[in-house]
Design a protein that fits this description.
This protein is an alpha/beta fold and 598 residues long. Helix content is 17%, strand content 30%. The protein contains eleven helices and 35 strands. Helix 2 runs parallel beside helix 8. The two termini are 26 Å apart.
């Protein structure tokens, strides 16, 4: 708990250097985990975990000299439902009052460092204003994603109407708490050809599944395999920050996997899954038996299918190496981006200060049109045009022309010819499920893996999560949907792990996503597919607005820029099971929504 009154309570801390908070606009680029060396290779050979490789564990009982105590306010200074940051000398704490009780927690979201005081307090939890992660106010535990770590909870006492907070100095400086996890005690770990749990795919879904199993006390063998060369990393950052290095993107350091016995197989491609014999075969012939399987293979980017499609210097952005390579080729040169969706627009925005010219080619008439609608798309397009990005809309690529094998020109169907030294293709993705075609595991006509609310496939003991699944979205009448976003993958990985342990958990999270361009963030919550109207409050031209996406008389999604914490507030309302009616957002009176508290 990080406190030190009379009875010492156990404390769980993770040592980590916390960098000073960057200015507000840089929120998306701050790294969530530092210092992971290159991925170590796994090939099924022996990897024993020795005690000296374990993560350092601080003393469970902080000594009095490790503690700091301060009187922070009068009991009447905070109303129910209010939050404020208070200073303890060694760091700040988030103090809040809920149902007459005071709680003190870490003040920054462990995901990207957002100030939680600007978030939403509702139903016994605080929701981050930037990306929607939720923390239980009684325990500090992470209850909804993104991110991996929880908050410290500090001790509060009230004497003579004064509120005093006591905390360990170490906890104040860390700003994050990794939940207590079991270690692997399986004698076969690291060398036998069978595992209790096999996880295929080491994105957010795969990693959260492994961590949840350990948090829930599971101490048998877990093998996590990935096509990547790297340990799990924050792939959502690649297109926002093309210069990011693998170690800056790492979600956990190498020591973490060793300490908790989560075995990583990198550059490991599964070619067949034999569900009858509960066995997978890897490309190099290595075979591994499992008793529970999670499929989280993600998706594969679509590529151009035009004349000259194989010329050099045409990229989809899938790995840090891709991103770094694009940046090297684009510096001072001409870059063409094909596709004005999230990935394409993030790359275009990032390259404007680096490249000589940036052009975007798109089939629709405005960027993000299907996702954000015409008016929001147009406002964003204007922001890009003001930053020297040229758009070629309602056309597509006819030919890629090369000189000496390297890209030189992109020819459009509109007969326009664009000079190009590098081309980034962001035209969508398909589920990476080809290896499952003969397995008996159900796939739909588009190659997605349908699962139920417990993330179970049609085969007992086989679960699936992440970008490659369709699942029933509880608050849209259990409509089967595919939501290929970072937060949803985390949530699905957790539910899959809980059900491997027979906890009967169901997926019920409200989708939440974000994008960052030119230091500005757009946040989005809900599921807007099939919206028939968009109601905009605020000023689109100034990019200070909130857009409500409606279908019939119901609000099904919301997007905002410079309007925090409105999207987190709407996400909380939707998560509570309440329907928001169109008429409630048409009036422009949003007091029902923006008021703090429940």
């Amino acid at each position: 708990m990080g406190g030190c009154f009379s009875k010492p309570k156990p404390v769980e801390l993770k040592i980590e250097v916390v960098l000073p908070e960057k200015e507000r606009g840089k929120e998306e680029l701050s790294a969530s985990g530092k210092g992971s060396p290159r991925a170590y290779q796994g090939n099924g050979t022996a990897r024993h975990f020795h005690a000296e490789e374990r993560l350092p564990t601080p003393q469970p009982y902080p000594s009095p000299q490790d503690c700091v105590e301060a009187t922070v306010c009068h009991v009447k200074d905070l109303e129910n439902g209010q939050m404020r940051e208070v200073e303890l000398g060694w760091g700040k704490v988030l103090l809040l009052k809920d149902n007459g009780e005071f709680h003190a927690l870490g003040h920054k979201c462990p995901h990207y460092g957002a100030p939680l005081v600007k978030g939403v307090l509702s139903r016994g939890r605080v929701r981050c204003p930037w990306h929607g992660a939720c923390f239980n106010i009684s325990t500090g535990d992470l209850e909804d994603f993104p991110g991996l770590d929880s908050l410290h909870k500090f001790q509060v006492k009230i004497e003579k109407e004064k509120v005093t907070v006591r905390a360990s100095k170490q906890a104040l400086q860390l700003q994050r708490r990794t939940k207590v996890m079991a270690k692997c005690i399986s004698p076969s770990a690291g060398h036998s050809s069978s595992t209790n749990v096999l996880i295929v795919g080491a994105g957010a879904a795969g990693l959260v599944c492994a961590e949840t199993l350990r948090q829930e006390g599971f101490s048998d063998r877990i093998v996590l395999c990935t096509l990547d060369r790297h340990l799990p990393y924050d792939r959502a950052k690649l297109s926002k920050s093309l210069d990011a290095q693998p170690e800056q993107l790492a979600l956990r350091p190498k020591e973490f996997f060793r300490a908790y016995g989560i075995e990583m197989l990198t550059e490991a491609q599964v070619v067949t899954v034999d569900v009858r014999n509960k066995k997978v075969v890897f490309k190099d012939g290595f075979k591994l038996e499992y008793s529970k399987l999670l499929l989280a293979p993600g998706s594969s980017p679509k590529t151009l299918n035009c004349k000259g499609k194989d010329v050099e210097n045409v990229f989809t952005i899938r790995t840090p190496e891709d991103a770094n390579h694009v940046l090297r080729l684009a510096r001072g040169r001409n870059a063409v981006v094909v596709g004005a969706g999230f990935l394409g627009m993030e790359v275009a925005a990032y390259l404007t200060e680096k490249a000589h010219s940036v052009s975007v080619v798109e089939l629709e008439e405005t960027p993000f049109r299907r996702f954000l609608g015409e008016r929001v798309g147009r406002a964003l397009m204007k922001m890009f045009e003001n930053n020297r990005v040229k758009f070629y809309m309602q056309t597509e690529v006819l030919e890629l022309r090369a000189q000496e094998g390297k890209l030189q020109e992109v020819v459009l169907k509109s007969s326009k010819v664009l000079r190009a030294d590098v081309c980034v293709v962001g035209i969508g993705a398909v589920p990476a499920t080809g290896f499952l075609r003969q397995s008996g595991i159900g796939l739909d006509s588009r190659g997605f893996i349908p699962v139920n609310k417990m993330m179970q496939t049609n085969i007992p003991g086989v679960f699936a999560a992440g970008d490659a699944v369709t699942f029933p979205l509880a608050w849209r009448n259990n409509r089967k949907v595919n939501i290929p976003h970072w937060q949803m993958a985390h949530a699905q990985g957790r539910v899959a792990a809980q059900n491997m342990l027979a906890q009967e958990a169901e997926i019920n999270t409200v989708p939440y996503l974000w994008t960052a361009m030119f230091g500005k963030s757009l946040r989005y919550a809900g599921y807007g597919e099939g919206f028939d109207d968009v109601i905009i409050q605020g000023d689109l031209e100034e990019l200070k607005f909130v857009a409500f996406y409606t279908k019939g008389d119901e609000v099904i999604a919301v997007a905002s820029m410079n309007y925090d914490p409105i999207v987190s507030k709407v996400a909380e309302v939707l998560a509570s099971g309440r329907t928001i009616r169109k008429r409630e957002v048409e009036t422009g009176d949003m007091s029902w929504l923006t008021g703090r508290g429940s």
